[in-house]
Amino acid sequence: MTPRMAAAITDAGSRSRRSSKHNHEARMAAIHAEAQAIVATGKCPRCGNALHRNSSMTGWWQCSCYPSPAMRTVGYVDMERYPKCDFQCFTA
∠ at Cα 59 (45, 79), nearest 5°? Predict the structure, then answer.
């Protein structure tokens, strides 16, 4: 392989990586914008119950009927009373 061919292949790979990174960033921005719009309503898009912020990670929101497994096993939440909804989203 000549140095010229090697440079052309490297340049093409760099362009591909930049394009892929740009596509990923654009896709994540769209996902976060959609999540922020959902959080602004304050209601779960699946079941209509309230959303609450999970303080374990920045920007993590969950449906209020999505209790943690620890709450289920200890019995803090009456699971029969709540619909089974597993909606979660990230805004950050």
Answer: 50
Quick: pLDDT tens for 9-59. Answer: 566 556 666 788 889 999 999 999 999 999 999 999 998 889 999 888 999
Tokens coding 53: 């912020």
Query: Which residue's entry shows tokens 């140095």?
Result: 3
Pair 3, 11: CB distance under 8 Å? no
Strands 51-54, 60-63: pairing kind = antiparallel
Q: What is the pTM of this model?
A: 0.64
φ, ψ (nearest 5 deg) of residue 68: -70, 155
Q: How many CB atoms lie within 10 A of CB 65?
A: 19
Q: How far apart are CA 92 and CA 84, in angstroms?
A: 25
Q: How many CA atoms lie within 13 A of 70 on its CB side?
A: 0
